[in-house]
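INTERNAL AUDIT FORM
Audit reference: QA-55
Scope: verify that the stored structure record matches its stored sequence.
Auditor: D.O.
Record contents follow.
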Amino acid sequence: MNLRESFNIGKLNIHVFLFAFIWICCNSLYAQERMIDLPISLYSDDGDGFVIIAHRGASAYHPENTMIAFRAAYEMGAEMIELDLTLSKDGIPVVIHDETLDRTTTGKGSVSDHTFEELKALDAGSWFSEEHSGEPIPTLQEVLEFAKGKISVNIEIKKEAVTDEAWGGIEQKAWELVKRYEMEDHVLFSSFDYRAVAHLKEINVDIAAALLYEEQQSVNRSPSELVEGYNADAFNCSYRQFSKRWAKDALKVGFPVFVYTVNSKRLMRKMIKRGARGIFSDKPDVLKKVVENLWKSSES
């Protein structure tokens, strides 16, 4: 063997060593991230430490925030459904994203200007497709009745429903329903209004709650500073906001980050590798396949 051949073999060995080192480090990081406790229990926990969250249900295929979307998400293998919660004029917790009815229903005007009976008479499906015509706006009670024993729930409390009072407001009404259906260990609350998280912790310090990152209220504080400051159990943010710096911050302190709203396989893989403990997706079936393939490859 001449000197050139020896040099080439040496280069090859170095490359093999570097590849092995990087692979071990990456898998070690996966292991660390997956050791961080989730703030709630999953009915269908497969033990991978990652949560497949159906954003407003399987909303790529069915009208968002409707029972058909939630049922489809469960059938697709989602481990959690996410929904948006606000109050009707007469104080009933109803599931709808927008402050107004115009985009996703046959109604017009503010949700809060309509009674529960008026809201139930609206069509919340025909905007999506004729096939879904007649889908009603669900109540939180209806969703929990379906979800109990099947699938965990992320309840996002809408900012417009939050007041300065913890007692008697949307937070207490939602929590009372969660307790009625004995889903305390299977529901994660979240809100862009940090007062809602503070209210939930005032009502019961053990309520699982996540901060939904909102820049103005955060005043340049890091995710760990926000989570500790509000005694939150998790941190939710956009995939655009979930930087490597934030991922390191979360891993160092030890709280889970859930990222929204990711529908492409490439971005799903990127966010998982960066350290997201769960992803909100309109396509939970696609996310499930990506997760399964990633874990298989990392454990082989």
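Auditor finding: record pair retrieved intact. The chain has eleven helices and nine strands.
Action required: none
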